Each structure stands twice: as C-alpha cells, then as structure tokens.
Cu(2+)-exporting ATPase (Deminuibacter soli), 289 residues
Amino acid sequence: ATPAAIMVGVGKGAGNGILIKNARSLELAKRINAVVLDKTGTITEGKPAVTDSFWLQGDETLQHILAALEQHSEHPLAAAVLAHLPGPLDYTVKDFKRITGQGVQGFINGRLYIAGNEALLHAHQLALPETLQAKIHTWLQQARTVIFFADATTVIAALAIADTVKAGAAAAVQALQQQGIATYLLTGDNAAAAAFIAAETGIEHYRAGVLPAEKAAFVKELQQQGRVVAMAGDGINDSAALAQANVSIAMGKGSDIAMDVADITILSSDLRRVPEVICLSAATVRTIH
Ligand code: ADP
Ligand code: MG
C-alpha cells in the first residue's frame, strides 16, 4: 500500500481506539487466517473474583501471609485473592518471584510460601490433599480457576476463582469465523476452564495448561502449517507469543510490556475491534490496487 493509504488507515484506526504502531501490520492484517487469543484479560474481563475457599489450617495469620505474598503480584488473580482476604499486616516478603504459568513465591519470616496452580504444587513435590479432592473436582466442573496456597511441605488452602467473559467476545469470534478465520484459545489455566470459555464464546480450538514459551511455540506451529497468525494478548506472559505472531494485538488494559511488543493496541480492550482491524486492513490495501 502507498504511505498515504496506510496513513489514512492508521488514522481511521486511531479514531476507533485502535493504535497501529507498526504500519506494515495493517497491510499484513488482511492476510490473517488464524487468530490466537489468550484467555485471562483478553477473552475474559481479567477481573476475577474468589467464589469459594477452603482452609486446611484455620490460623488467620496464614490469611495475612497469603495477602502479603499476593500484594507483590500484578496478576489479575492476585487482585481477586486480595479482595477476598483480610488486609495484609506489614509482613516483609523476601525474594519474591513469579513462576511463569504457575504462580508466585516468596519468603516470609524465613519460610517459603507459594501460591499458584496444581503445576506449582507438583514443582514443589506437593500432592493434592485427600480432603480437598472432591471439592476441587466440583470447582473444576464449574469452570473455576483453582489456586493453592502452601508452604514448602504442606498445602494450606485452596481458592476457587471465577472470571467473566467480556461482552462482545462471542460476537468477535463469530465475526472472525465469518471472515474465514480460524480461532484458537490458549491459556495457562486448566482444561475445564478452557473448555467452558471456548464453548461460551464459540472458539473452535483450545489448549489448556500452556506455558508462556509454549504459547509462542504454538503460534510458530500454525505458521509452519502456512497460516498467517494474529495473536491477541494482554500480559507479560504473552510477550513471546506476541513477538512470534505475524500481527500482534495488545489489549489496552493489559501490561505495558504487551503494548510495547505489539504492532496494534486496542485501547478499550474490546475484542470486537479485532475483526474490525482486519476489515480496515482489507479496505486500506484495496485503496491502492
Ligand atoms: P493465563 O493468562 O492464560 O491465565 P498465566 O500464565 O497468567 O495464564 O497464569 C497461569 C496460572 O498461574 C493461573 O491460571 C494461576 O493458576 C497461576 N498464577 C499466576 N499468577 C498467580 C498469582 N499471583 N497467584 C496465584 N496463582 C497465580
Ligand atoms: Mg493473560
């Protein structure tokens, strides 16, 4: 496309809250035939809330410790946990670490604490306590995200968290499908939650339990099958997949890193802008032929 046509397209995008940083991506977007979507914060609001919790140890100190740990995380799940717990007392968390795709850890009063999914428990050789199994089974059937709180030797609590699908997500998926574009959902979350969200939005394919590096590998796999791939994500953990995609789209309410990496940013985080960008691209490219 001519620079002038592209400038018009970029301007039209900006008018609709679509920031096109890389003008070349606007030309390319017309050729997209696969769209990969991150779940949390992209398809869902990313504002999850705790719906149930089960504490194997009743000591309220431990609730404060979990709050202190989650206070260091910027993950949407951390905000849900914090809203549910009594405010953290002034515990100092040392050596706080994010374990990508699994959760967080830190030392409080010289003791290691972890909060995250079942994979994180396994990484610490911790098994799911017998007393929790039935409860967790029920939560997973309700498509809850289940996270655990533990120290180095013992599981202390399990929490069930629910996140709602964004208004317009199903409409966006339908519009993409009408454009002949295949849709994929990728998430670090469990298979039941992924299946539930896929069904609710009409997304054709999903993969659960996916680590950030695997998100990028999945995009590459699609490209090796000859597909032109757009990736939409919101988080730090999506940046590798965004970088791998032919066209990368960041949700404006996500992390700054995702927006730095992405070709296109959707300021409102409304997924309906994704099929619109593709239409805009087609219109822009058409102008010059
Ligand atoms: P996604 O954005 O696809 O849900 P993430 O990599 O952000 O994937 O998260 C994967 C999983 O890691 C979450 O579903 C959750 O189980 C766990 N996790 C991440 N951060 C936290 C946190 N601060 N507290 C508890 N669990 C967490
Ligand atoms: Mg995310």
Remarks:
- The first helix runs from residue 3 to 15.
- The chain has two domains: 3-45+165-287, 49-162.
- Residues 20 and 95 are 38 Å apart (CA to CA).
- The pocket of adenosine-5'-diphosphate (ligand 1) is lined by residues 38-40, 70, 73, 75, 77-78, 101-104, 115-117, 145, 147, 187-189, 235, 237 (CB under 6 Å).
